[in-house]
User: What shape does this take?
Amino acid sequence: MAESFEGPRAQPAPPSALSFPAGVFPTMITPFHLDGSIDWPRVDALTEWYIANGCVGIFAVCQSSEMYELTADERLALAARVKMVAGDRAVVVASGTFPGPVEEQAVFVNRMGEVADAVVVLVNMMCAADENLAAWRANVQQLLALTGQTRLGLYECPTPYHRLLDPETLRWCALTGRFFFHKDTSRRPAAISAKLAALADLDTPFRFYNANAACLLPAIRLGAHGFSGVCANFYPQLAAWLCAHPAGPETDAVNDWLVVAEAVAQSKYPLSAKKFLAQFPQFLGTPYCRTASPPFNDEDDLRLASLLRGATALSTRLGLPMVPPAVQPG
Assistant: This one.
């Protein structure tokens, strides 16, 4: 007989714990100087760029941010800086569970909770790959007990191993009342549909953000609250538009373009995103990554140039302003 994971009913959320908005949460890249240090002016510029292009939140300190290559202090500083710049204009979430015992994870979660709107629990960090769901749930319960009322999120991060949550477990998490954000990496409409069905009757602050561009439109039509994925580092305005227009005369065309363009965006990522953004003369960030990546060649550069032209043309067709990322002088 399957083990039941029906959790405690959530208590009414206080006014400071209202649900997060529907829309796009880009998986923020971390700009670096050529010496490998964080480029803070370009962190600020990216934050402003996301917001100007219609994003309702920002997932700082995630896999796109090269989070495993950041120190603990850098992770905290990055989340704090993004939240300082964003203010009340965007929700900021950041990962908080890294390798180590639950007690150590809880200490860092509480520290991150002081600077971010929610602290994201990396699903694959709550037990080893060869441990079962019961072990995962026990560790999550311990984390909940050690982190007070800190608002939390979930991210089915694919590295160092990919652990997906089943619908029943996702429902249990929602029923705790502690989880406000879920970045789903199922990548299959059928799996997304099953998870959303398990959540459909709940009155909790839990919000579901699909991570896969190919599933963006199907997920929104199934009831997902938004998107948190790679392409928002290239053309966030198009992802935001599609989330807001799941039906209409241009919907299928925009969806088809995003699905096909994703292959270019994903190739040699996150280097590809940094090279793409360097095409904007107002930004001119370096392509430096702390994670290893194959080098770019002339063909890669041509693809990114075409990607920018295509995004510009499609945005113009939709009447969307092309707001470039821009570093403020000084």
Remarks:
- The longest helix spans residues 298-318.
- Confidence is low (pLDDT under 50) at residues 1-16.
